[in-house]
Amino acid sequence: MKIEVQREAMRAEGAVLFPDDQLRLVRFTCCGNFGIEEVEDKRVFYDPGKLKSFARKGEEVPCQICGADRWEWEPVEEFDPEELRPSWARLISYEPEPEPEPEQGG
Ligand SMILES: [Zn+2]
Hints:
Elements: E1 2-5, H1 7-12, E2 23-28, E3 34-38, E4 43-45, E5 55-56, E6 73-75, H2 86-89, E7 92-95
Antiparallel strand pairs: 1-7, 2-3, 2-6, 3-4, 4-5
The protein binds zinc ion (ZN).
Zinc ion binds next to loops.
């Protein structure tokens, strides 16, 4: 699945971004909610309605969504579009892979 974060849409919602920022869709391992990570700076935006707010990886803060003590996230490569709330969906674009490529670990 091809997933692209729409940086202009994020900016329009108040996110502070720099031209070199690498953005990707992530999912929190505690509660399964989505977020957008800025990879270089290890920032994660967790609320599509409050893009001025973010957390940094390694900060000892509980998940701002579910309150879990350990807050971690991992990149999303595949998701069911029905799972993505409209408030997130307008910040990313996605399309299914044109042809299925079998991926092997390693
Ligand atoms: Zn959580």
